[in-house]
Amino acid sequence: MSNLGLAITSLFSGVGALDYGLELSGLGYITSQVEIDSYCQNVLERHFPAARRFKDIKHVGGNEVKAEVFCGGFPCQGISRAGSGRSEEHTSELQSH
């Protein structure tokens, strides 16, 4: 995709479906992606070769990403039908409260 529009950083990117949709809509272009899963990272690398990738959001500082828009597919394993479906699990939380 071209570098026209807003610079977008994608958090919890998965395989990049949201990222692709945002680029396809013309909103902007993906500059950075954060995804911990190695399979997903391989898919992202193939489809977004110009984007900078990070594995763990806990190690990404504000100076490391160029973004005017942040988007995210937040973890939902504990409540997802594809996951365990056990909402009492805390895998859907980014931090404990």
Low-confidence parts lasting 5 or more residues at pLDDT below 50?
none
Provide the succession of SSEs: EHEHEE
Helical content band: 10-25%
| Secondary structure: number of strands | 4
How far the N terminus sits from the C terminus, by CA atoms, comes to 40 Å
Mean pLDDT: 83
The percent range for strand residues is 15-25%
Alpha-carbon Rg, integer: 14 Å
Largest sheet: 4 strands, parallel
Q: How would you classify the helix and strand content by structural class?
A: alpha/beta
Shape: globular
The side-by-side strand order for the widest beta sheet comes to 3-2-1-4
Number of helices: 2
Summarize the structure.
The protein has helices at residues 17-25, 38-47; strands at residues 6-11, 28-34, 52-54, 69-72.
Descriptive report:
There is one protein chain. The protein has 97 residues and is of the alpha/beta class. It is 20% helix and 21% strand. It has helices at residues 17-25, 38-47, and strands at residues 6-11, 28-34, 52-54, 69-72. The protein has a 4-stranded parallel beta sheet, with helices on one face. It is globular, with a radius of gyration of 14 Å. 20% of the residues are buried. The mean pLDDT is 83.
